[in-house]
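User: Here's a structure from my thesis project, written as structure tokens. My advisor, Dr. K., wants to see whether a designed sequence matches the one we expressed. Can you design one independently, without my sequence as a hint?
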């Protein structure tokens, strides 16, 4: 297994074919995915896996499986994706975590590692796009050195969703 990043407690690696059940552990959970207004269906989980694997090939980055070093258990994902806001492309740090692992600092640990990786290998600015109701993710962005750059709305499944674009630039 090729690991992209390691932190004191985590390893991040590319998702592998056939790992839909690991993704389903959090993507299908409506509480985890409340910013999307629903837990993902089987087809959406399968598409998510393929979307990431395509991103690895085309961009050399994507959302990576997040494993606990101590056990090898996959607890979520964190990584980098290309996102467009108001006709500008950004490199975004995104993450999803199984609910039972919330509140243990794993999201910020992985997000900081992704920021460092992006600054070292890819860009001088990263963002996190956070729905305006997602206080936990806002706190992760702030703890990752980000400030709100702008507010905008996304349409998703016919729902207008206000978001904040948090940003940090390489020192």
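Assistant: Designed independently from the structure alone:
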């Amino acid at each position: 297994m090729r690991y992209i990043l390691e932190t004191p407690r985590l390893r991040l690696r590319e998702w592998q074919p056939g790992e839909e059940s690991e993704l389903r552990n959090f993507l299908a959970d409506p509480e985890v995915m409340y910013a999307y207004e629903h837990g993902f269906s089987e087809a959406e989980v399968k598409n998510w896996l393929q979307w990431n694997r395509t991103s690895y090939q085309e961009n050399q980055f994507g959302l990576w499986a997040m494993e606990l070093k101590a056990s090898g258990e996959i607890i979520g994902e964190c990584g980098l994706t290309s996102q467009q806001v108001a006709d500008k492309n950004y490199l975004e740090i995104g993450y999803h975590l199984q609910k039972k692992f919330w509140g243990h600092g794993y999201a910020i640990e992985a997000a900081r590692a992704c920021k460092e990786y992006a600054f070292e290998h890819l860009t001088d600015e990263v963002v996190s796009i956070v729905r305006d109701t997602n206080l936990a993710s806002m706190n992760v962005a702030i703890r990752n050195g980000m400030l709100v750059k702008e507010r905008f709305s996304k349409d998703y499944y016919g729902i207008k969703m206000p978001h904040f674009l948090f940003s940090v630039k390489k020192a």
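When you compare it with your expressed construct, this may help: The helical segments are 20-27, 42-59, 106-121, 135-143.
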